[in-house]
Amino acid sequence: MSLGLRSKRVGILNNSCHKVILMATVTTKREGFAALRRLLKDPEATDEVFVVIRGFSGKSFENEYQRFLRSETGLDILAEPTELLDVLKSDFTQYDLGSFAALYTRFLRLEGLSADGLVDASDPTQEVFDEPSRAKFARRQRDQHDLWHTLTQYGRDELGELCLLAFTYAQTGNRGIGVIVFFGTLKYRKLMGNKVFKAVYEAYQHGKSCEWLPAVKWEDMLSLPVEEVRVRLKVQEPQVYWECRGGVRFPSLTPA
């Protein structure tokens, strides 16, 4: 899965938050440990986040890709000439206000984002896949990040990004993401207390219990009511996360 980090104020999750990682660059575990030490010493050195994740990611991307190929939708998606990004950049005003597309559009608009903004935010050190199918899968993983925000209801605040990372770790099994979640949780605990552990664990559990999102054909989901999409994909509403926020919901994640 591509990784979007957008938190802007809490140490390990700082300025890297607007960047996205496509798991292609080969980084050794030794380099990952070295980057982790540098990051712990200087939490503002947020480019080290990418090195840490790549260093500990192992074969997670290839495992995801092979699982994608074995899924019911994988080969059909790869055969489509249209990219997910092209669909997400199209005009969604045709859809009902309660649709997944409408809420996704609202999320982007109120958060000051754009569908293709994730392209500019990608990890600059990533390698480009020579094999077209893997490249398309990697791009698709990157481009669905904000769909996951919209679907899971985890916001762009620090805790929301941390919870979405935990959810992503459950979906991808990428240990590099798990490492960042672990140390990010320890960091955020200083600001919020032990309840942050419950929120992150809940997000992880939700990621484990829902359908495998990388294989979802999002193009077919956009016109559906957002609640129907959540039911179909078995995505549960976060409870502890909202409790940590005092029950305050983000307008960008609330249907108009």
Textual characterization of the structure:
- By secondary structure, the protein is mainly α.
- It has one domain (3-250).
- Helices cover 55% and strands 2% of the residues.
- The protein contains 14 helices and 2 strands; from the N terminus they run E-E-H-H-H-H-H-H-H-H-H-H-H-H-H-H.
- The chain has helices spanning 29-41, 48-56, 60-70, 74-79, 84-88, 100-111, 117-120, 132-143, 145-152, 158-172, 175-192, 195-209, 226-233, 240-244; strands spanning 3-5, 19-21.
- It starts with a strand and ends in a 12-residue tail after the last helix.
- Residues 6-12 and 14-24 have low confidence and may be disordered.
Termini separation (Å)? 30 Å
Main pleated-sheet profile: 2 strands, antiparallel
Strand order of the largest sheet: 1-2
> Could you tell me the number of beta strands?
2
Q: What's the assembly state of these chains?
A: single chain
Summarize the helix and strand pattern as letters. EEHHHHHHHHHHHHHH
Tally of structural domains:
1
Our count of helices gives 14
Return the average pLDDT rounded to an integer.
Answer: 86
- Helix content range of the residues, please? 55-70%
